[in-house]
Amino acid sequence: MATDARGGAAGESTDEPLHVEGEDHLEDVTAAYDVVLVDFYADWCGPCQMLEPVLEGLADETAAVIAKVDVDEHQQLAAAYGVRGVPTLALFADGEQVEQHTGALPEDRLRGLIEEYAE
């Protein structure tokens, strides 16, 4: 069985979402792991709050790393990715962005996207 990159960088656990501290951190995370789902969110966003337990489950149950970017804290980073509304979900595979969706997606759709790239 092949080893995946779930060991974490610098002691970070990938069984729960990672909170991104800035553009360099996001680049490091997307480069270090095969599949990364980035959640651009805001604390005041109702759909973001509803999506939180889904993302926590996906972080624990899939090979993907879930990265969280607070758009209020990191406005320039959100703008760099063309985030116009929250939640916006960006999927990275092998360091490259391959998908981006605005709005909360159902768990089965998110799981399908992750599995499509986690081969």
UniProtKB/TrEMBL annotation:
GO molecular function, one term: protein-disulfide reductase activity
Cystines in this chain: 45-48
Swiss-Prot/TrEMBL keywords: Disulfide bond, Electron transport, Plasmid, Redox-active center, Transport
Record-annotated Thioredoxin domain positions: 4-119
Site feature location: Contributes to redox potential value: 46-47
Keyword hit for Hydrolase: no
Domain of life: Archaea
UniProt KW NADP keyword: no
UniProt cross-references to InterPro entries, sorted A to Z: Thioredoxin, Thioredoxin-like_sf, Thioredoxin_CS, Thioredoxin_domain
This protein's GO CC annotations: cytoplasm
Stored CDD domains: TRX_family
Active site, per annotation: 45 (nucleophile), 48 (nucleophile)
Site residues by UniProt (Deprotonates C-terminal active site Cys): 39
Family annotation (PANTHER family): GEO12009P1 (PTHR45663:SF11)
Name this protein carries in UniProt: Thioredoxin
Organism: Haloterrigena salifodinae
Gene name for this UniProt entry: trxA
